[in-house]
Design brief:
2 copies of one chain form a homodimer. Chain A is α/β, with parallel strands linked by helices. The first copy, chain A, contains 11 helices and 17 strands. The radius of gyration of chain A is 22 Å and the shape is elongated.
Chain lengths: 350, 350
């Protein structure tokens, strides 16, 4: 199939406004440059090597992936500095990780001794070196550990010939985590363990970068496209959102209610204020429900209502999960389609 | 990669218990047989031709898909009786639909005149015949129309040389829709328009089949696997649920809290009672939050808590959306992997 303009596209299709994406890439890079820290884009938002390459060309230092299988796609595409901010657990995964580390610089994060030991054994068997950061627990109460334990983990990492201690990671990196970070850095300094990298991340962290002067790098994914979550949190405006899902009206039989051909399989099922997406052409319309292939829209607050066959554009609540639902993204400049990307690292869960 | 038993699998992986799946297929077929109606499995739940073939071998009559692109996969795989219970809108889609109708019996549903006219034009251009049912609106207030309008649509369908009126469709098919269905059937009879099929559907409809004696066929997808939604609604028990997501513990640093490697990218973000899945080994554990690659589990109500590296099995809230997230499903009998299926119709949104 060939597509010359967005009007040739089937719906639902995911459009990326190239002007906005390029501006977003430049803005984030210059913010990191101004602070003197490295920008390491998280590829989870786009899952596309060509977009990561544009981020590197703008000045980014390496990339972050969330899965070994994603890292494999990017190493195959020529990327040689990959961070996986995740506890890699299980013999098959650690074996694949150690194999990757033969051809690229691979950095992972850990928050417990069993995770270190599993990776160390695989690195030893492969004869490769894996870089390892310790993760501190944050307000999000997800993964991560305490400052005391972080020191113990750093020492254990340092004791292996196949691991290299690479620093400290926090997610999200905000002012709340700073006391714990400072305590950890103090303990490491007292133990004479050098800290190469202090890695922060999270969309919110973008606004708080200057509150954590200890950071040496920032991992963020969403900033390449932004989304309604970002707008709602004040990180961006709707005018910055580069991703839009092009959708068609397939039913309009009831006053004020329209059904779109885009449901949870296209725009996902996450919500903001009970809404599943923001319709650019009808800002007061509300996508109040989704099934897999249907989006239910309330147009009662709008002056007019679209008819069957009319096309609308939806800014999704959360771009990363939308990318993961689609096999292609369409890069458009104005109405012209300039590039069709396969989402190469889509659906990679291992 | 070769996998001989489930213990060889990476996590997260989606297991299908073949004994349970086969029992589920047999049960649904025999319930339809007992009522004297056709069973038309909706493939949205598995998206895999081999599973649909097993359903046909058990006695099912044709299949239902939700998208033209899904129908294309199944026609390529040799299926010749395909229903798409959806308003197919847009010139590219109707052209592909009309092309499919040259090699398979294709039935769609419609709820408005513009949808009929678009499909009729494509069928005429292709010289093919498309079967068409009218959809009645139900309590769900999604697509569908009124009895009076259904009659008008049936007459319009009948007026085209390239369309064939195939009957009436309702979703979900429950007792509440019966007055509207009876009125429609009465209007069609008075107009001397024969009704070949009255098609019902929805997991809930399975329990209400005998309350709608007018049905001649039943479309249901979820009954092949069942899921927590089905259990919650009383359609099945956990012991009937054939799909389980195999997940690993990757962090266990806090009392009562464990982090799994399975988040919204693996088990989806739909919930029941604020929970994102049911852990078979720990029935009182609560998956209370997900990020894309993390599942947060509260084990405070459990007698014990798993350690890093331990594997658990999750019955998902909604199987269809889980299937759509994965590239493979693993069919297991006991611990042995008997078949690895590519999810051929995964991610097809057009």
């Amino acid at each position: 199939m060939t597509f010359e303009t967005i009007h040739d596209l089937e719906t639902p299709s995911v459009l990326i406004d190239l002007d906005l994406m390029e501006a977003n890439i430049a803005v984030m890079q210059s913010r990191c440059d101004a602070l003197g820290i490295a920008f390491r884009p998280h590829i989870k938002t786009h899952k596309i090597p060509d977009i990561a390459r544009r981020q590197l060309e703008a000045g980014a230092k390496g990339i972050a992936c969330q899965k070994v299988s994603e890292a494999e796609v990017f190493v195959d595409a020529g990327f040689d500095d990959i961070q996986i901010p995740y506890n890699i657990v299980g013999a098959r995964k650690t074996r694949r990780l150690a194999a990757l580390a033969k051809t690229a610089k691979v950095t992972v994060t850990v928050d417990s001794q069993p995770v270190i030991d599993g990776i160390a054994a695989a690195a030893q068997a492969a004869g490769s070196t894996i870089h390892m950061m310790v993760e501190l627990v944050s307000l999000g109460q997800r993964t991560g550990t305490t400052p005391e334990d972080a020191l113990a983990l750093a020492q254990r990492i340092g004791a292996s010939d196949y691991l290299r201690f690479a620093g400290v990671m926090v997610y999200p990196s905000d002012a709340a985590v700073r006391p714990r970070l400072l305590e950890t850095l103090g303990l490491l300094e007292a133990a004479e363990i050098p800290v190469e990298t202090v890695s922060g991340g999270g969309s919110g962290a973008v606004s708080a970068m200057d509150q954590l002067p200890e950071l040496t790098e920032m991992r963020v994914g969403t900033c390449v496209f932004w989304d309604w979550n970002s707008v709602s949190a004040g990180y961006a405006g709707f005018d910055d959102c580069a991703m839009r899902v092009r959708a068609s009206v397939v039913s309009a039989n009831a006053p004020g209610r329209v059904i779109l051909d885009s449901g949870s399989k296209s725009i996902n099922s996450e919500t903001i204020d009970g809404q599943f997406g923001y319709i650019v052409e009808y800002p007061t319309a509300r996508i109040y429900k989704v099934n897999e292939e249907h989006g239910y829209v309330d147009f009662s607050a709008c002056e007019s209502m679209p008819a069957v066959g009319e096309i609308v554009h939806i800014i999704p609540v959360h771009t990363c999960v939308v990318t993961n639902l689609h096999n292609q993204l369409f890069g458009a400049r104005g109405d012209n389609i300039e590039v069709i990307w396969d989402v190469s690292a889509r659906g990679l869960v291992w």
